[in-house]
Amino acid sequence: MKTPIRSFTVAVAGLDLLHMTRLKLACSLLLSERMDVTVTSWPCTGADLLVTGPAHEACGTTLADPSADAIRTLRISRHAARPGQGVLPHGATVRDFNAQLRTLLSDSEPAAALAASDTTSPTPVLLQLTAADREPSEGLHLLQRGALWLLVDPARHTIALPASIRLMDVCQQLDGQSWSTSEVSEADFLHQYAYRLPQRQSFEALYFAVGHHRPELLAEPPASLRLRHWPDVDATDLPTSWLQPIALLHAAAWTQDALAQHCQVPRATIASLFAAASCSGLALAQERSVPVTVPHLDTADNRFMARLARRFGLGLLRRSVT
Amino acid sequence: MNLPANKLVFVGGMGAGKTTAVRAISDVEPVSTEMPLSEHATAEKTQTTVAMDYSSIELDDGELLHVYGVPGQRYLDFMWPLVCDGALGVVVLVSAASHEPVSETLELLQEFARIAPQASLAVGVTRTDEQPGFLLPAFRDALFDAGMRLPVLRVDARSSTQVTFLVKSLLSYRYARDARTD
């Protein structure tokens, strides 16, 4: 599976034409590594990185602001002899820029951030705003990180996002530290943002995508449950291997262990499914699971069904297929 | 000799995406009965199915899954029992742009549950990308309130991946139903 394209915003202050041109070239080269970088002028909101030139009069002030906002910086310095962490010498090449950008932006990736942080890292702001146990609210929350914009609509239990963005892409950026949030009115959203965010996804779809792509961000799942409804899931955000467990949970209550054993999928996958169901509010807590028998294959219907499932890449009835 | 349930039926109103869905998952070019629309033609839809679509999917032992697309209009309901005889699954397709998606879907679900009690039912909602106001959980909950608890998924009928995912969901649902009641 391809790594999703991640979007970043790099702000610049005090760069001359030479360095600006090299920076832009370096940014465009990052696209080959599925990093889509937008260059913009400082000051701005939602920047992932600030690049400052040596001659900028307000360099001191410029650097103070991003430090306060925990934005990483890359300085072009006349005093630096060679490239270092966050510093490039005057006249740095496109390759130097490219290497520094890749390092600094990669450091702000969710996976890297998560690995570096301890286990008590805060719940991502998007998951806080979409939590099933959150107090109902009418306001709309606009979220921005780099070039990525989202809208959380708690009243409708949906998020709005750009047409080209998939939930998988959102999951990859969930725990970035540079998300900004603001409340907007319905009228402001319709007037200023609706055309940018035409796609709607339900909280359910979001949580099942998170369960698949970033299960570590979800709360501890219950030991057993049953699904209230068939979840709002999509082929682009969920693998086929989740369908049999979903169907069985839709039909009856199961424990994690029993379901993992029955479906022959890793227990961690089942735990992720349970966590997604629980966080999305679709789980019906069950004291104990109902014993379930495997359908007999001695009928023509079931033998045909087994072959049909195999044709579609499903493992249904596999133990009985001859 | 009893033949296994070996039919998959797509049913839905005009513009729901039946012909497109059948084509998306077929091994061979479907037999279609599309005719030019005499009225209500749009840039996207200039033809409509006047009888049915038929295609097949070959399994590894050479057996065929017969795939049908049948219109959901009442004046064509005489063909529903014929097509549904021996169906293992019926997928009701509904466009999110429909004026009454819930009642339209319910009517078809109730009718096909009666005609084909042996078949498993699922719902695919098409054109959701054109209708940002359409909320699938609310739609699904409305069906549930009317007694229909079944897979309800968004689907792009043009996408083989998404139509296949819907069919896989239906098969998984059928398997779980049998596992529970066997």
Reconstruct the topology from this structure.
The complex is a heterodimer of chains A (322) and B (182).
Chain A: E1 6-13, H1 17-29, E2 35-41, E3 49-52, H2 59-68, E4 72-77, E5 87-89, H3 94-107, H4 110-116, H5 125-129, E6 140-145, E7 148-153, E8 158-161, H6 167-172, E9 180-184, H7 186-193, E10 199-202, H8 203-213, E11 224-227, H9 243-251, E12 254-255, H10 256-263, H11 267-279, E13 283-285, H12 300-311
Helix pairs in contact in A: 1-3, 8-11, 10-11
Chain B: E1 7-12, H1 18-25, E2 34-36, E3 47-49, E4 53-58, E5 64-71, H2 80-84, E6 87-95, H3 101-115, E7 120-126, H4 136-145, E8 152-154, H5 160-181
Parallel strand pairs in B: 1-5, 1-6, 6-7, 7-8
Antiparallel strand pairs in B: 2-3, 4-5
Helix pairs in contact in B: 1-5
Question: What's the short version?
Answer:
With 322 residues, chain A is of the alpha/beta class.
Explained architecture:
- The complex is a heterodimer of chains A (322) and B (182).
- Chain A is built from twelve helices and 13 strands.
- Chain A has 322 residues and is α/β, with parallel strands linked by helices.
- In chain A, helix 1 packs across helix 3.
- Chain B is of the alpha/beta class.
- Chain B has five helices and eight strands.
- The mean pLDDT of chain B is 88.
Tally of DSSP β-strands of chain B: 8
Which structural class is indicated by helix and strand composition of chain A? alpha/beta
Count of beta strands of chain A: 13
The rounded Rg of chain A comes to 24 Å
Return the string of H and E elements of chain A. EHEEHEEHHHEEEHEHEHEHEHHEH
Proportion of β residues of chain B? Answer: 15-25%
How helical, in percent, are the residues of chain A? 25-40%
Largest sheet of chain A: 5 strands, parallel
